[in-house]
Task: inverse folding
């Protein structure tokens, strides 16, 4: 295997559990925090097991991801938070759009298009 493949396997050790927690956290409001903690630790252990055993890594990672999501949703179903999780806006950041947004965006698109046209072999 190449160094790139090895690095992908190493990144999957922690990325798959983190991604499962982020996805479930964004889409649900009653999954308790302890489920996320279990998924982060248990997911890393499961991914390490898959790394040392001769499994197809990509299929294994997808299966672990699905298992972690199902675990979190099941935990949220049988042990939900008493109150739905809410996010309170602190208004700490000024969200006024930048006045040169459209000019800068158009300039970036033009630069990318010109690079593509100059390097593409038509």
Result:
């Amino acid at each position: 295997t190449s160094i790139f493949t090895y690095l992908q396997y190493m990144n999957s050790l922690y990325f798959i559990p983190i991604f499962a927690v982020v996805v479930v956290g964004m889409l649900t409001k009653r999954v308790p925090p302890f489920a996320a903690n279990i998924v982060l630790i248990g997911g890393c252990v499961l991914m390490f097991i898959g790394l040392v055993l001769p499994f197809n890594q990509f299929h294994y990672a997808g299966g672990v991801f699905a298992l972690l999501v199902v675990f979190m949703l099941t935990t949220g179903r049988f042990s939900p938070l008493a109150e739905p999780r809410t996010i309170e806006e602190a208004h700490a950041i000024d969200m006024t759009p930048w006045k040169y947004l459209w000019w800068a965006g158009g300039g970036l698109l033009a630069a990318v298009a010109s690079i593509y046209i100059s390097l593409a072999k038509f």
Summary: The two ends are 34 Å apart (CA to CA). The chain is about 70% helix and 0% strand. The mean pLDDT is 92. Residues 3-27 form the longest helix (25 residues).
